[in-house]
């Protein structure tokens, strides 16, 4: 009996000491910090805002350029109309001078003709087949000349009056054009100031966008490195788990073999020691 107890104690010691399964330590997988992903999302949102602001600034700049082009076209058209008005006035004054000169020439010719007829009459006693004593012919000729001169004066006065009215209207139009040009100059200066400010804002936004892109690139590089490190750690963890599984399998196989040996020993203990001997 004592021998059987010693064998049982030895068997229990053998099972507890040599075939006790070693604890398997599994390396927990590395958890990716969500702050990096949140930082990337915020950077991307900021980039989108900067892109929208840049588009709005470019649209405002294009609209301002279009307005300046329209204003320049209007100014050029106004200057052209002013030049045409000045040219028309000069032509009117020139026409007035020509009409006045022509009238003076006609009156001078009539005066010379009457003077010549008056000088020829006493010496010859006849004037172009008529007697010099026929006073009604001379008086009628003088009346016709006076009527023609008055008519010419009326025509000249009417032309001068029309030209003066045209010049007055032209001066009024010129005054309005000058006022409009002054207001256009003010608007153009304001638009140029706005364009300058927009260009400054666009340049600032471009610098901010460049900084944000650089920051996003750095963040992306950092996340890529973290992902690669996480992949390496995951591969290492997977390798360790496989090694631990293999070790556990070997331990289980050893335990199974020990259990079979123990079962055989319990069934035939004396035969086991005899075989050992």
Automatic annotation (TrEMBL):
Bias-annotated ranges (Acidic residues): 7-20
Keywords, sorted A to Z: Coiled coil
Query: Where are the stretches annotated Disordered?
Result: 1-25, 81-150, 213-241
Indicate the segments annotated as coiled coil, or none if absent: 37-67
Basic and acidic residues bias: start-end ranges: 81-120, 221-241
The record's InterPro entries line, in alphabetical order, gives: At3g49055-like
Recorded protein name is Uncharacterized protein
Source species of the chain: Riccia sorocarpa
């Amino acid at each position: 009996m004592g021998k059987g107890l010693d064998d049982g104690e030895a068997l229990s010691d053998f099972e507890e000491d040599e075939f006790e399964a070693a604890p398997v330590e599994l390396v927990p997988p590395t958890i990716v910090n969500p702050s990096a992903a949140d930082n990337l999302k915020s950077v991307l949102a900021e980039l989108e805002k900067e892109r929208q602001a840049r588009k709005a600034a470019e649209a405002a700049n294009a609209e301002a350029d279009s307005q300046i082009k329209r204003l320049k076209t209007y100014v050029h058209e106004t200057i052209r109309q002013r030049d045409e008005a000045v040219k028309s006035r000069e032509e009117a004054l020139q026409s007035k001078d020509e009409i006045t000169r022509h009238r003076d020439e006609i009156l001078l010719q009539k005066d010379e003709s009457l003077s010549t007829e008056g000088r020829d009459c006493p010496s010859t006693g006849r004037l172009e087949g008529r007697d010099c004593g026929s006073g009604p012919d001379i008086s009628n000729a003088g009346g016709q000349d006076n009527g023609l001169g008055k008519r010419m004066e009326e025509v000249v006065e009417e032309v001068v009056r029309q030209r003066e009215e045209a010049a007055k209207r032209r001066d009024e139009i010129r005054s309005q054009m000058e006022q409009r040009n002054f207001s256009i100059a003010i608007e153009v200066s304001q638009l140029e100031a706005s364009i300058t400010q927009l260009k400054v804002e666009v340049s600032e936004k471009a610098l901010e966008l460049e900084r944000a892109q650089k920051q996003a690139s750095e963040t992306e590089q950092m996340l890529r490195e973290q992902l690669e490190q996480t992949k390496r750690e995951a591969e290492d963890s997977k390798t360790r788990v496989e090694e631990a599984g293999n070790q556990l399998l070997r331990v289980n196989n050893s335990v199974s073999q020990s259990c079979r040996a123990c079962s055989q020993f319990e069934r035939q203990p004396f035969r086991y020691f005899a075989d050992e001997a």
